[in-house]
Design a protein that fits this description.
The protein is α/β, with parallel strands linked by helices and 356 residues long. It is globular. The strands form two sheets. It has an eight-stranded parallel barrel, surrounded by six helices. α3 links the parallel β5 and β6. It is 41% helix and 14% strand.
């Protein structure tokens, strides 16, 4: 297993993080998974043995039961609290009341105490705001989180599914007001969904904010079960819940390149998809949501895959994002800055051609 610092901090986390969204399977999350306590104990034990020290959940996963099972697994397996990094999230609706949702000070303070009880711990390593609250001022959210850090209930803070401008605004407020800053962003990123590269990844690299990747296999689309010929395989979560949003035709083209590379490495397409992400410098940790030991074994083996420069180039090229303004305008206007003799018209033709 490999380890990286959590953003611009000294905390070391494994580059694979185990996601507990599949635990229990209550309500909406039944379609995601229904791992019971005994199965969870087996998976957590295997994670620890493989060097994974990072575990992610959320208060909305299976109505809080995911947190309960995860916390109980650590107890059942006698895993010292200091040996694991526990991440959870708040924001989603957890009750019928007007204030049982969002990122207000009231909801955050109440939500963290509830998560601590379910996880059976007295502190959370990484506490994340799970979504965008258009009602609560960003400063109110940050002040509430700063209070939790000061109280020792939370060690580090992060956010999830935020736009680039909002993340930068939060980082600015934290700096100017001397508040705890977001150390991570948890976001969707896969070889089939590279939109994060337009604005967020440049921002995160500049600000040294860590990137935690959810749905690295695009909701199972890159698992090896799907193809042009078989777009709704049995026993697949994505066949029932087509999420996250992905350009399917583009994905089939990616798999056309990925599958031969997987054969070269004698492994699954899923392992190549994970290895591609792990090779990206901006990625801190990739969250895997294995439902059984076979999936866990396969996912964990991705850390041992070393893609060649030619293989990375082939995967990058087939999955490249279509040019989008101002992305195509900025490099074109900057050509003269690098080479006064460049043929700008030819370069524009290249850009136009790649957009088709």
């Amino acid at each position: 297993m490999q380890y990286k610092t959590l953003g611009d901090t000294g905390l070391l986390v494994s580059t694979l993080c185990f996601g507990a969204m599949t635990f229990h399977g209550a309500g909406f999350f039944k379609v995601v998974g229904s791992t019971d306590q005994a199965e969870a104990d087996e998976l957590i034990k295997a994670c620890i043995e493989k060097g994974i020290n990072f575990f992610d959940t959320a208060d909305v996963y299976s109505e809080g039961h995911s947190e309960e099972i995860l916390g109980q697994s650590f107890r059942n397996l006698n895993i010292p609290r200091k040996d694991v990094v526990i991440a959870t999230k708040c924001f989603g609706r957890v009750g019928p009341g007007h204030n049982d949702v969002g990122a207000s000070r009231k909801h955050i303070i109440e939500a963290v105490d509830a998560s601590l009880r379910r996880l059976q711990t007295d502190y959370i390593d990484l506490y994340q705001i799970h979504g965008t609250d258009h009602v609560t001022p960003i400063e109110e959210t940050l002040r509430a989180l700063d209070t939790l850090v000061s109280q020792g209930k939370v060690r580090y803070i992060g956010c999830s599914n935020w736009a680039a401008w909002r993340l930068q605004r939060a980082l600015d407020i934290s700096e100017f007001k001397s508040l705890s800053r977001f150390d991570t962003l948890q976001a969707y990123y896969s070889i089939a969904g590279r939109e994060l590269e337009r604005e967020l990844i440049p921002l995160m690299e500049y600000s040294k904010t860590g990137l935690l990747v959810w749905s690295p296999l695009a909701g199972g689309l890159l698992s090896g079960k799907f193809s042009r010929e078989n777009q709704k395989p049995e026993n697949s979560r994505r066949s029932e819940f087509d999420f996250p949003i992905v350009d399917k035709e583009r994905t089939w083209k990616i798999l056309d390149v990925m599958n031969p590379i997987a054969k070269q490495h004698n492994c699954s397409a899923a392992r190549i998809a994970l290895a591609w992400l792990l090779a990206k410098p901006a990625v801190t940790s990739v969250i895997i949501g294995a439902k059984n030991m076979k999936q866990l074994e396969d996912n964990c083996a991705a850390v041992d895959i070393k893609l060649t420069a030619d293989q990375m180039k082939a995967l990058d090229e087939v999955s490249m994002l279509p040019p989008e303004y101002p992305g195509w305008m900025i490099p074109w206007q900057g050509l003269d800055r690098l080479d006064p003799n460049v043929d700008r018209m030819s370069k524009m033709k290249e850009l136009v051609g790649s957009a088709k």
